[in-house]
Amino acid sequence: MTVQHDHKGAKSAGENPQGTLSVTDDRTGETYELPVADGTVRAADLNKIKAEEIGLASYDPGLVYTATCRSAITFLDGDAGHLAHRGYPIEELAAQATFIEVAHLLLNGELPKAADLKAWERAVATGGTADEHLHKLVASFPRDAHPMSIMLSAMGALPAVYPELAQAPADGEPDPRPARLIALGSTIAAMAYRHGLGEAPVAPDTELSFPGNFMSMMWKKDGQPYEVDPRVEKALDVLWILHADHEQNCSTNAVRSVGSSGVDPCSAVAAGVAALYGPLHGGANEAVLNMLREIGDVSNVAEFMTHVKNGERRLMGFGHRVYKNYDPRATIIKKYAMDVLDIADGSPLLDIALELEKIALDDDYFVQRRLYPNVDFYSGLIYQALGIPSKMFTVMFAVPRVSGWVAQWMESAADPEQKIVRPRQIYTGAPTRTYIPAQRRD
Ligand code: SDX
Known about the structure:
Blueprint: E1 2-6, E2 17-25, E3 30-37, E4 40-41, H1 43-46, E5 74-77, E6 82-85, E7 88-89, H2 90-96, H3 99-108, H4 114-125, H5 132-139, H6 147-161, H7 177-197, H8 210-219, H9 230-242, H10 250-259, H11 265-276, H12 284-295, H13 301-309, H14 328-343, H15 348-362, H16 364-368, H17 375-385, H18 393-413
Helix pairs in contact: 2-9, 3-9, 3-18, 4-7, 5-6, 5-7, 6-7, 6-11, 7-8, 7-18, 8-9, 9-14, 10-11, 10-18, 11-18, 12-17, 14-17
The structure holds s-citryldethia Coenzyme A.
Residues 246, 249, 280-282, 284, 308, 314-321, 369, 371, 374-376 line the site of s-citryldethia Coenzyme A (SDX).
């Protein structure tokens, strides 16, 4: 099969026509015109190329080279290390917005006007009360259960506990589910943390900010008013802006795929929690801390890097499917790590992290593979400095990502091009054969 890129403008199936490919199938001698649009060829057009009874499909493990949707929520330029939500660069949002404002932007496409922001903040502040069934569910876990398992189970239980979250609102009615899911994600995270300590849960405080309320639910002591440390409140808010959404990552793809069956948003978000739990994805921030602790001292970094370059270990918190330059979030988090660690008198693990980064940025193995620190490399150091245990780090990632997952679920549900996800496969199993009863198998 030979392919030429034909620059003549042709009607394209996509919204941004970019000419056509003239494809000659050498198996049949047939020539096909494949429209190019938005840097893609439609697989449905590929399927028109037939040599036998069924047309061609594309084979793309990990969907490395496959666009699964059109989305207006987040834009990444991996080579430039650029990230923007609805057109706003992450650097500007991190410097000037609040997480709740960014959540509104992701969900609605625009930064809220002052009055709308107040109403949105109120909806989230009052949407996170956990009822007795949720308390019993969390309390039913072993004391040492990983909080991501608790979060996964509790998010999946929401439609059973709150049936109204399983229903779409009546036409024209506002949808209360995004605010409730964002709020309940925060409440469940704090409940999971306190369960691990054997402490009773703390009810949401509707007078506090989103991060301030989270801190109160995490750390409030019985009977004492909770004093929010504004430095910690700000650091959490910035971290959560940086983790809110990130285009079609593994967990968002899970949310969209599960959501394509028509299931409710809570169940789709639970699928996102499950995917995020993995050490190659959101679980990497916990894995980074474990790695830094294992290295133990700056003097051991060179030896550890040898194991990485031999392929025996992964440098957790490094590398990214899209970013082939610095992850812009890592740059911002690193700066915050320095600021926040001043609160906690520094961290020996920070010195190890800085040495790992310094070596990696000069070493051919990493430079050739374009491996740079990603969002997970420094975030754990901040969480640790804030007194959050490493088992909670991925939960800290999941809390803000609920806003991105719900925004992506809503966009997918409203997309007329989307349908239930049901990919093809290449069958490698046994050819047709006849059943033999057990007594005759010897
Ligand atoms: C997140 O997608 C997103 O947007 C995710 C995320 C989000 O906000 O949702 O940004 C959050 O998940 C960030 C990534 C966190 N994960 C880690 O830090 C785990 C360590 N990183 C890797 O496992 C890896 O870099 C991935 C999973 C992030 C990306 O994997 P790819 O794109 O599939 O790359 P690959 O595994 O095919 O690696 C390409 C090469 C390989 O070497 P060769 O086989 O060519 O010799 O690079 C090497 C890999 O061995 N490599 C690494 C490495 N990452 C890739 N080698 C050492 N250490 C690493 N971290």
